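Subject: Phospholipid-transporting ATPase structure
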Amino acid sequence: MNSERDSETTFDEDSSQPNDEEVPYSDDETEDELDIQPAVEPEQNRINREVEATRETLRKDCNWQVKANDRAFHEQPQFMKTEYLCLKKSKYAGNAIKTYKYNPITFLPLNLFEQFKRAANFYFLVLLILQTIPQITTLSWYTTLIPLLLVLGITAIKDLVDDVARHRMDNEINNRNCDVIREERFINAKWKDIKVGDVIRLGKNAFVPADILLLSSSEPHSLCYVETAELDGETNLKFKMSLDVTDRYLQEERALAAFDGLVECEEPNNRLDKFTGTLIWKGRRYGLDADKILLRGCKIRNTDVCHGLVIFAGADTKIMRNSGKTRFKRTKIDSLMNYMVYTIFILLILVSAGLAIGHTYWEQQIGNSSWYLYDGKDYTPSYRGFLNFWGYIIVLNTMVPISLYVSVEVIRLGQSYFINWDLQMYYPPKDTPAKARTTTLNEQLGQIHYIFSDKTGTLTQNIMAFKKCCISGETYVQQVNSDFSWNMYADGKLTFHDQYLIEKIKQGKEPEIRQFFFLLALCHTVMVDNSDGELNYQAASPDEGALVTAARNFGFVFLSRTQNTITISEMGTVKTYDVLAILDFNSDRKRMSVITREPNGAIRLYCKGADTVIYERLHRNDPQKQTTERALDLLGATAIEDKLQDGVPETISKLSKADIKIWVLTGDKKETAENIGFSCELLTDETTIYYGENISALLQTRLENQKNRTGSNANSSHGDNENFFPPGGNRALIITGSWLNEILLEKKKKKKKLLKLKFPRTMEEKQKQMESKRRAELNKEQQQRNFVDLACECNSVICCRVTPKQKAMVVDLVKRYKKAITLAIGDGANDVNMIKTAHIGVGISGQEGMQAVMSSDYSFGQFRYLQRLLLVHGRWSYIRMCKFLRYFFYKNFAFTLVHFWYSFFNGYSAQTAYEDWFITLYNVLYSSLPVLLVGLLDQDVSDKLSIRFPSLYILGQRDLLFNYRKFFISLFHGVVTSLIIFFIPYGAYLQTMGEDGEAPSDYQSFAVTAASSLIIAVNFQMGLDTSYWTFVNAFSIFGSIALYFGITFDLHSSGIHVLFPSAFQFTGTAPNALRQPYIWLTIILSVAICLLPVVALRFLTMTIWPTESDKIQKNRKKYKAEEETWRRRPSVFRRGVSGRRSAYAFSHQRGYADLIASGRIIRRRRASLTAVLGNNLAEVRRAEEAS
């Protein structure tokens, strides 16, 4: 691996450079908070400083007041805010979550309002109104009303189904149960009924329903262990601890019901790791911080019972504040389709205006002098032309396809069900099927350029596994299956395959091996729970848990600990060791140590950590041998793997071949993220890696050059398109959140608080200030654009130690400056903002709750299903939608423009070329089913070939199947078809006589002939465009033609004319015309001339210029035979070959050493006050009374 920097470079010495180990600030942080610098100081001084800072902050910002067990307190006038003119509502949000849009009362008006905001629907509403004016209409009103009602009805039903699903999801969460104090006792209540100020009780494995202040728990010193996977993606437990005063007095139900404390704290915000407040109780004030707050979305672990006071509820909770705004997502094809509809509007107006001018001229030249055309109205030619303009707007209205939008929605709905029903995307271990949670984005799945992925739980299983070890220079790795049956403490989960190592441990001939596992069992801060008769370990990080569990399986079992001792079973012999000190892990030390006194009195230090810090502390006969953590003897090394999900490297490889770039955005440490990059093959040994400090210099140089070229204007990047790197090569960018803020000029700076005399500023000073701000904004925009350009030149990008807001910002930058289609995938609440920002959001139903899934557009159980979602469903959906739209525009132009050609022979009088009922049913019945089935079922190649040849996906990324060029080709095709459909029957009817002496060359017979030719031609054209033939497709094409003739004969019968004489005027036309042989010859000739050129062109194209899809389809039988004998090739990643160092201790969290050393974490029997204080008891009580 070529690296562009020394991996050991740190920035602690230079405070002006970002620290890779720190998570950047949240967007809601104030400038004062950002200026607080950590310092090493005595504990009491730190506490005093924090209390003073808290008081200072409270005076300025703590306007949020919460009174325990007093709901009336929060309804006081000072806590009311005005909503909807004069209506007032409490500023304290309820705990119910609402994501639905409608209720039974608002559904109909709101849904109709939303539908008529669509230009096409509103246009047809106006058209319906115009058709009620007899002076301008030549079409019956039902020709527009019936299709419009059908469109509105189908769309309303789909919206109703979607909203019912949202109602169910909301109800599932809002109706969860929780114990709440009511009338001085705990009763069971629903989450939605919880209010700010309520005191609640939670049990083990319960989710926290709101942001609460921890009052007490069943653990010593009211500790509470929580899993924050839904908040930050980490599954290792964190501990919270209540105030001593609440731990002491608020254990019993009666005391909790009488609790009347007042909390003054900051307003609701999105800072997950910050909280400032004060508890006022019994005349005293107690400082509060984030360690005493349980956030909504956390899960209670290893704690039987805990009690809390609700501080923030519902929309005010931090997890909801981090979820971001729900954005309306529209596909690229949607936007393009809307522009095309606007183009058709313009064409319709121009054509109608031209024909109206033609009618005005015709009236002046011919109409006024033709007495037999007089209608009894003395209108001027200009006024008649004006009326005809609106008449042609009505006649040619089908140029704007009324059923287009509803047909698109039906196709998308069907494609969504295909995703839901795909058994190859079903994850059996968790009974998780794939789910399309939206029905509006399917074809966009076939156009993705960039994928932004979370790491923990998305690429990985978040399960650490002990893979191998090296002891005294000998490596022990998989050889044969190991037998742990001899060990009564073995958990049965370790899959270590080296029986030789186990035999050596049993024999005890090599003390280094036993010493190695003894160290793993001793040197840690893991806590053990033996309450259910089994050993359950709770570690501060998964990797430390994996090491202790490995030692347990190899016979060195950590059993228990106290404040000063640790008990271990060594190959069945239980021994207890005195612990003199624990030097805990942190991001600077990258190691931890334990100092023990052995039974023989010897004092030893055991240390484990990252190889980079251990190597430099090994014994080299130096004079510092007696110094702590110096001159260490090396026992061995371990290899721990955070297991990738199945199929992750293969999925990433396939997506890369489809020209999709994958960026990993994670909150984990840089080294951890980098190692996962190698594991999933985003990075290889040949990859040149660039870090934040490398690209910062490149970007600064580029920005200076751009400024020099254009003076002081930094917005001239459009002419500066040179690459940052030479072409070729495999490059990757790894950048931390701190560097990201630094590079993108997002870093907040504290304003200097200087005493300044304020004088009125002149206009010139104001202009200078505005100009300075403008330049700063231009610099920032240019820097962000340059960063995106540089990052996109890399094959892969990994952003680590980033906040949820930064994840969303990175996605937004790529959307804004690259105009690329983006997809974000994650499994935790910290991914919600990113999921909502991307064009498409995918949630994984994993270890971290359902928050990401609820905010996503699509969800499934494993990352590997993403390749099928994109390469199969996405590509098929895109191809089907493009084919549908091209054909839909074609058939409407072919249908409508026959009226245009007919106008030249009827004095531009806005007369229709077809029967009214044919116009009504053309898009509804006669030509709708074949194109709908192609939009639902068509596929150019099979799903297996789609995955085997990812390059097929590139068509969608480049918009090659539907664009303005394709639109105008469809328009031209429709114009030519309409010419043939009109002029061939016109020529055949010009001078014709029937066999029986009748002359069927009347207007009605012509209309039937043209309509019959059109129906057969457009349905056969759909057959030519079909790639995947099934019985259903064939039935739809021939069935539509048969349906047309059946309905036409019924509508032209004398019986229906007798019942409705004014609505059915083509009595006997179809039976009379279609029994003439030359009419059928005319129809056949028209259809042949329409289709034969298309067939010839398709043949030449597939023969001379075949697409990749054509080539694969031609050889599909060969590929199918190969698949039967094909076996999966070995992975490029070869374990044990890379010389890279392990990631252990880089992802490691700070442990529980402080709690262990203080004894607060150790469960013990409560002693009496007399036993503890002895003779000082009376003195202590007097001091308490005096205070």
